[in-house]
Design a protein that fits this description.
Blueprint: H1 11-14, E1 19-24, E2 27-32, H2 35-43, E3 48-49, H3 78-90, H4 96-114, E4 119-120, H5 121-138, H6 145-150, H7 162-181, H8 189-194, E5 197-198, E6 201-202, H9 205-217, H10 220-236, H11 238-246, H12 250-262, E7 268-272, E8 276-278, E9 281-283, E10 288-291, H13 293-296, H14 331-347, E11 350-364, E12 367-382
Parallel strand pairs: 2-10
Antiparallel strand pairs: 1-2, 3-7, 4-12, 5-6, 7-10, 8-9, 11-12
Helix pairs in contact: 4-5, 4-14, 5-10, 7-9, 10-11, 11-14, 12-14
């Protein structure tokens, strides 16, 4: 199944070795490309540190926020203590009742989509899905999603007002923690952090805001672009939906193959702790290192026929959610959303027709990569085309 909206943007670069120097927004970064090399670097926090406020995301975010994002911008052992505070929320998708809520939400959105002449998937389906599902994860009222939706696909980079939206996000977060500190409850995300302790002390307000900033800004666009890419692929390849209808056991492997091939987060940054050779590239102390998930997930030495979408690919050791201690906390949530979407589309006999699209292209001097869609207009119908 070669026809798909994804591509390997780093195939030629990998031929040069496991690492290359690149220019990213005029910054010199060493990008690690090979699967084994990326995975090893992700686990080596003594050489490649995350203790670098604003510099873990690529591009960096010092113009958009005032706090260190937690727990992603600290190293072990401190990272473990911080992550433990929010882990219970990110494990909620493993509970059957949580899955039932996601089913109900997706059924509502799919029925609504099928009753329209057409629907723009990115902003009118994927964005509300992500925002409303996040209220379930954080145990807050679903009406909160209305404000979250207004922030767009990416809080900092959707439009040219990233700094203003970054300030608005922090104002919102402070308001929620003000409310949480007055509450004796501990059930929702804000309340739990407002009363949490680490290393025998209460969290500071800056630490609380750091957790929430990551929660709202960090994994937002990735799930939105993944969902829109799923719709695009199914619209281009209706036979894939037919395969899922015929064999529901393929839903799990198909979902994992989507994550591998989409890999919505191209890479993440680490900071070099000393001058060293990184797979043949001389690097300076404090220079940023890119762990390129998108390249690693197309490494032909690991994934046979890597450029082809294989719904039955197994094993599939992709690292779309990262690797090591900083593996994405939201992986359970993302997997539940995507695989439930696939199951409902297949079981309830939905059909997808693409009417218009504008790809989202990540452009840099040394590479261009498709990472979802700016716009994807589709017609969603229920029932076979011949009925």
């Amino acid at each position: 199944m070669s026809k798909c909206p994804f591509h390997d943007a780093f195939a030629e670069h990998r031929k040069k070795g496991d690492a290359i120097p690149i220019q990213f927004d005029e910054e010199e970064i060493t990008m690690i490309l090979g699967f084994k090399a990326v995975r090893a670097a992700a686990r080596d926090f003594t050489s490649f540190s995350s203790d670098a406020p604003f510099r873990v995301p690529i591009p960096s975010e010092e113009d958009f926020r005032t706090v260190r994002q937690l727990p992603i911008e600290v190293d072990p052992p401190q990272h473990k203590d911080y992550r433990a505070l929010v882990e219970p929320f990110f494990r909620r998708p493993l509970a059957p009742e949580f899955g039932e809520r996601i089913v109900s939400l997706l059924e509502e959105l799919l029925v609504d989509a099928s009753q329209r002449e057409d629907i723009e998937i990115v902003r009118d389906f994927a964005l509300p899905l992500q925002s409303r599902a996040l209220t379930y994860l954080f145990d807050v009222d679903e009406s909160e999603a209305d404000e979250w939706i207004s922030w767009g696909i990416h809080v900092f980079r959707d439009g040219d007002d990233g700094a203003a939206k970054g300030s608005a996000l922090e104002e919102y977060i402070h308001r929620k923690f003000d409310e949480a500190e007055q509450s004796s409850d501990r059930s929702n995300f804000f309340e739990a952090l407002a009363h949490a302790e680490v290393e025998g002390r209460k969290l500071t307000r800056e630490e609380m805001v750091g957790f929430a900033n990551l929660a709202f800004a960090g994994g937002r666009d990735t799930i939105i672009h993944t969902v829109s890419s799923v719709f695009a692929m199914l619209g281009m390849c209706p036979d894939l939906l037919e395969k899922l209808r015929a064999d529901s056991s393929l839903i799990n492997t198909t979902g994992e193959e989507f994550f591998r091939m989409i890999t919505p987060l191209t890479h993440i940054g680490r900071v070099n702790t000393e001058e060293r050779d990184v797979h043949g590239v001389t690097t300076r102390k404090d220079q940023r290192i890119s762990l390129c998930w998108a390249s690693a997930n197309y490494d032909e030495s690991i994934f046979e026929d890597a450029a082809t979408f294989r719904p039955d690919r197994k094993p599939n050791p992709h690292i779309a959610f990262g690797n090591g201690t900083h593996t994405c906390a939201g992986a359970h949530h993302a997997r539940l959303i995507v695989k439930t979407l696939l199951r409902l589309l297949a079981e309830q006999d939905f059909q997808i027709e693409i009417l218009d699209s504008i790809e989202n292209i990540e452009k840099q001097k040394d590479y261009e990569r498709r990472t979802g869609f700016e716009k994807l207009v589709v017609r969603v119908t229920q029932g076979s085309a011949s009925s």
